[in-house]
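May I ask for a protein sequence together with how it folds?
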Amino acid sequence: MAEKENLPKVKSIFVYPIKSCRGISLSHAPLASTGFRWDRQWLVVNSKGRACTQRVDPKLALVEVELPNDAFLVGWKPNKSSYLVIRAPGMDELKVSLCRPPQTCDGVSVWEWSGSALDEGEDASKWFTNYLGKPSRLVRFNEESEMRPVDPTYAPGFRVLFSDGYPFLLVSQESLDSLNELLEEPVPINRFRPNILVEGCEPFSEDLWKEVKIENLTFHGVKLCARCKIPTINQENAVSASEPTKTLMKFRSGKMLHPSRKGQGQVYFGQNMICHDLHVGNEKIIKLGDSLCVIKMFASYDDTLT
């Protein structure tokens, strides 16, 4: 086994409290079975209850969120003075109580899932309606009554809140560096919205990580992350262009990575992961500088997509 000082390390940790809005960079983060605490706990929906994302509403990229520093301590519970603070250009600051709201909203949908969610009220609705220019509401996942399972083909028994697919997304700095060497204008990691950024490995080596340990927690790679339109959206100004997807298509497409499989028109960047060591009432954390040790590797790209 490699010496600990030579192992890859956790460089950055990100959570995205409101789906498709800006993330928060952390020094440490508590984990739940659905992902990092607070990750994709909230969702903006349109008048039909469907998820609003940057794919259709790129202005969401400019929405900043802030949580109390204590919200990332193990065992922390919100009180009446605990708020999610939301800011955006040209908008007054919005404060949303972290205490459970009393009202619910039925008919909320994210991709294949539909159910009810907790409704954050009229002030939040007016704020997002004004900002996006269409009827909108802010809702919170109701973990007491709802469950959103991930694709059982890849991770049976696991679930998420409002994430697209899986509890964790891991990317390496070396993969980003390798991509940026091919681009006229380098892109930052926020284009890819990972939860965990590691450094100290070969570019794209995370593609084949089947089982890794981050300190004492065991993560399993379950599926390469197929990328949507969002990496082409500049997260500083919400303007979309062709890169980096245009370049990724040349060496990170399904046609290049697994020519005998379906999904050849997709581009892949990052590894979707689950963590097996999380149990209710036994909260764990990971922190910057934690070592990552590779335990098992996939034999080929075909294995990462089966």
Q: What stands out?
A: The longest helix spans residues 122-132. The chain has a mean pLDDT of 94. Residues 28-145 form one domain. The longest strand covers residues 217-226.
